[in-house]
């Protein structure tokens, strides 16, 4: 069963009709090629109309699409010789974060990413992609190892947020996230972060301090979920659509705010429509970024990383009275 | 008791006459949030807003906090002229800021600067939860980052007193990014050998607890302070379980290894100044060696 989003219904329906006509043409004597052609032109136009002007809430729906590619999907296409490693060495292994080493075009790298499932069973195993502290500590352990062996780090961000649970609090969720933010600032190897789905608050940011931050076109990055914001602001989580707009959480919004380096284009309708094409676009972006960053000496790299974050924020300076 | 059933009970509450109400000026008395006893506000203030009966720590505003930590007239404020804009054009944000500015007399939810604690020069950032619940937007992030940078450049220790509900929603992801901004500044401060002391006060949650609050060389808290990442209600909804009363208190965090010490307000200055003293020689040596 394919998941159909409300706003793309006209496209899906028209496409189904075209398929039907094609079937009729094939199976019977009636030639409908003319009609099909016409309808295909109409489909092309309709797709452009709908996918060309996506509202923030539409993008939220695409970012949350059940079939949206996950970290492991991209790993299998982008890298070779991937070996996943487990555990934080303090408490356990958190399946909502995957980490390991692989080759990216003959260069050894470390990969760390949030991992959600695509069905209920997988999601229960992956805790819906919401990490506990041990997930962040596993991530940090791999980052430190990357630094030791001088491997660039690539992170994939895809989480609704750090898990809001009792055990997570008892084991220091705050400390785990805070420590990652601080430690990532000082890592002497290049860090490239790509938001591939939802970038939910501190739980996303804990894998998101780097030299380049990219977002897939329909991914989101937010301090609070649109539903959460709507509940707080208007006491009504039904107003999520309005909140999604106000919060400025889409990739184009973040580019405009100067928070991310670039938006990586998605295939028409979203990454799930064409994983190969999407992976190629990510590949190109990472390749170019690594080539640029590789030229920098460590001190410059770290200074630029600091400057990058230091300039984020908007405020006014008034004359002291 | 059956007997009680027959006894006459007052079915009405006594409401003081309007004139009687006026006899007690507003702000003269205050009910303790812990034991519910009523005190003269002056009495509480004299005791640093700590209940003399039950020890409950009430909110302390930024300047009172500075006064109870720093030597008299030694404090010099930094960057008080930074004010929030409305980067996302968020509905009614400007009005809310204006209201809190009037209410508190502060420009933003944090006061930064430097002064002396028992003679030791120290930089400080103190959050004030009366201003937008102490939430962190661009200005809070910028002021704290600048303060850390100043402390690093001047080679003096840094104290951060937190009191915050977390990131400021009205500035969206810009406020989220203040977590990384401040954390990177702290990383550079630590790398240079700086001493960072974190004092968490009620409440320290969300994006503030998950960034600079937890990054001190020493992480302290006041008794009873609420400290945690996610809110109690959200956790209860997620795990479908009632949480214990002491959940996410300073004492809970101490027990779970997240704090170095819980320190009552009256003892704070002494403990801090002892720590500053213990870091004097070490700090100075590394300072001279790095400046060569």
UniProtKB/TrEMBL annotation, chain A:
Statement: the UniProt record of this protein carries the keyword Membrane: no
Biological or metabolic pathway of the protein: Lipid metabolism; malonyl-CoA biosynthesis; malonyl-CoA from acetyl-CoA: step 1/1
Keywords carried by this UniProt record: ATP-binding, Coiled coil, Cytoplasm, Fatty acid biosynthesis, Fatty acid metabolism, Lipid biosynthesis, Lipid metabolism, Nucleotide-binding, Transferase
EC number(s) reported in the record: 2.1.3.15
Lineage: superkingdom: Bacteria
Protein localization: Cytoplasm
Role, per record: Component of the acetyl coenzyme A carboxylase (ACC) complex. First, biotin carboxylase catalyzes the carboxylation of biotin on its carrier protein (BCCP) and then the CO(2) group is transferred by the carboxyltransferase to acetyl-CoA to form malonyl-CoA.
Name of the protein in question: Acetyl-coenzyme A carboxylase carboxyl transferase subunit alpha
UniProtKB/TrEMBL annotation, chain B:
Top-tier EC class: transferase
Pfam name, any one: Zn_ribbon_ACC
GO annotation (BP), single: malonyl-CoA biosynthetic process
Zinc-finger ranges (C4-type): 32-54
The CoA carboxyltransferase N-terminal domain, residue ranges: 28-292
Cofactor (UniProt): Zn(2+)
An annotated Gene Ontology molecular function: zinc ion binding
Any single Gene Ontology cellular-component annotation: acetyl-CoA carboxylase complex
InterPro entries per UniProt: AcCoA_carboxyl_beta, Acetyl_CoA_COase_Trfase_b_su, ClpP/crotonase-like_dom_sf, COA_CT_N, Znf-ACC
Annotated cofactor note: Binds 1 zinc ion per subunit.
Keyword annotations: ATP-binding, Cytoplasm, Fatty acid biosynthesis, Fatty acid metabolism, Lipid biosynthesis, Lipid metabolism, Metal-binding, Nucleotide-binding, Transferase, Zinc, Zinc-finger
Residues where Zn(2+) binds: 32, 35, 51, 54
Predominant place of localization: cytoplasm
Keyword ATP-binding found: yes
Reactions accelerated catalytically: N(6)-carboxybiotinyl-L-lysyl-[protein] + acetyl-CoA = N(6)-biotinyl-L-lysyl-[protein] + malonyl-CoA
Assembly behavior: Acetyl-CoA carboxylase is a heterohexamer composed of biotin carboxyl carrier protein (AccB), biotin carboxylase (AccC) and two subunits each of ACCase subunit alpha (AccA) and ACCase subunit beta (AccD).
Function statement: Component of the acetyl coenzyme A carboxylase (ACC) complex. Biotin carboxylase (BC) catalyzes the carboxylation of biotin on its carrier protein (BCCP) and then the CO(2) group is transferred by the transcarboxylase to acetyl-CoA to form malonyl-CoA.
Recorded family membership: Belongs to the AccD/PCCB family.
Name of the protein: Acetyl-coenzyme A carboxylase carboxyl transferase subunit beta
Source organism (scientific name): Saliterribacillus persicus
Encoding gene per record: accD
């Amino acid at each position: 069963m394919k998941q159909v989003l409300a706003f793309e219904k006209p496209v899906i329906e028209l496409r189904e009709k075209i398929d039907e006509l094609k079937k009729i043409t094939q199976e019977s004597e009636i030639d409908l090629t003319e009609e099909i052609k016409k309808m295909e032109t109409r489909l092309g136009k309709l797709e452009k109309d709908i996918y060309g002007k996506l509202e923030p809430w539409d993008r939220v729906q695409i970012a949350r699409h059940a079939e949206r590619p996950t970290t492991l999907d991209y790993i299998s296409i982008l890298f070779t010789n991937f070996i996943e490693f487990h555990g934080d060495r303090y408490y356990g292994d958190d399946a909502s974060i995957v980490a390991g080493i692989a080759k990216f075009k003959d260069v050894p790298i470390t990969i760390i990413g949030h991992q959600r499932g695509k069905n209920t069973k997988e999601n229960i195993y992956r805790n819906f992609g919401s990490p506990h502290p041990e997930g962040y500590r596993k991530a940090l352990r791999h980052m430190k190892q990357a630094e030791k062996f001088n491997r660039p780090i690539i992170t994939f961000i895809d989480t609704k947020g750090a898990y809001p649970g009792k055990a997570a609090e008892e084991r220091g969720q705050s400390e785990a996230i805070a420590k990652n933010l601080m430690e990532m600032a000082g890592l002497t190897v290049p860090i490239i972060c790509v938001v591939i789905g939802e970038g939910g608050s501190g739980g996303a940011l804990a894998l998101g301090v780097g030299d380049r931050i990219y977002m897939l076109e329909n991914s989101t990055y937010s301090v609070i979920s649109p539903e959460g914001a709507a509940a707080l602001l208007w006491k009504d989580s039904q107003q999520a659509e309005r909140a999604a707009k106000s919060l400025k959480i889409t990739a184009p919004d973040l580019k405009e705010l100067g928070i991310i380096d670039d938006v990586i284009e998605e295939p028409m309708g979203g990454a799930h429509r064409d994983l190969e094409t999407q992976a190629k676009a990510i590949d190109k972006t990472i390749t170019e970024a690594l080539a640029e960053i590789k030229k920098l000496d460590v001190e410059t790299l770290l200074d630029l990383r600091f400057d990058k974050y230091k300039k984020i924020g908007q405020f006014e300076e008034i004359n002291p009275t | 008791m059956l007997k009680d059933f027959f006894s006459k009970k007052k079915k009405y509450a006594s409401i003081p006459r309007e004139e009687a109400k006026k006899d007690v000026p507003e702000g003269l008395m205050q009910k303790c949030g812990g034991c519910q006893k009523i005190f003269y506000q002056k009495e509480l203030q004299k005791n640093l807003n700590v209940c003399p009966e039950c020890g409950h720590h009430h909110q302390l505003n930024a300047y009172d906090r500075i006064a109870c930590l720093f030597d008299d007239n030694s404090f010099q404020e930094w960057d008080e002229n930074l004010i929030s804009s409305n980067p996302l054009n968020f509905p009614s944000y400007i009005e809310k800021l204006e209201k809190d500015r009037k209410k508190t007399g502060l420009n933003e939810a944090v006061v930064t600067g430097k002064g002396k604690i028992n003679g030791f020069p120290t930089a400080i950032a103190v959050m004030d939860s009366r201003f937008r619940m102490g939430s962190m937007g661009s200005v809070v992030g910028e002021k704290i980052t600048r303060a850390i940078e100043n402390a690093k450049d001047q080679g003096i220790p840094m104290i951060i007193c937190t009191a915050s509900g977390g990131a400021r929603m009205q500035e969206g992801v810009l406020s989220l990014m203040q977590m990384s901004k401040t954390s990177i500044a702290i990383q550079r401060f630590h790398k240079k050998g700086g001493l960072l002391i974190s004092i968490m006060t009620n409440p320290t949650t969300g994006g503030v607890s998950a960034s600079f609050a937890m990054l001190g060389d020493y992480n302290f808290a006041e008794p009873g302070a609420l400290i945690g990442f996610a809110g109690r209600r959200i956790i209860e909804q997620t795990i479908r379980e009632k949480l214990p009363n002491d959940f996410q208190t300073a004492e809970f965090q101490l027990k779970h290894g997240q704090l170095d010490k819980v320190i009552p307000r009256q003892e704070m200055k002494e403990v801090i100044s002892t720590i500053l003293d213990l870091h004097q020689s070490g700090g100075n040596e590394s300072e001279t060696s790095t400046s060569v």
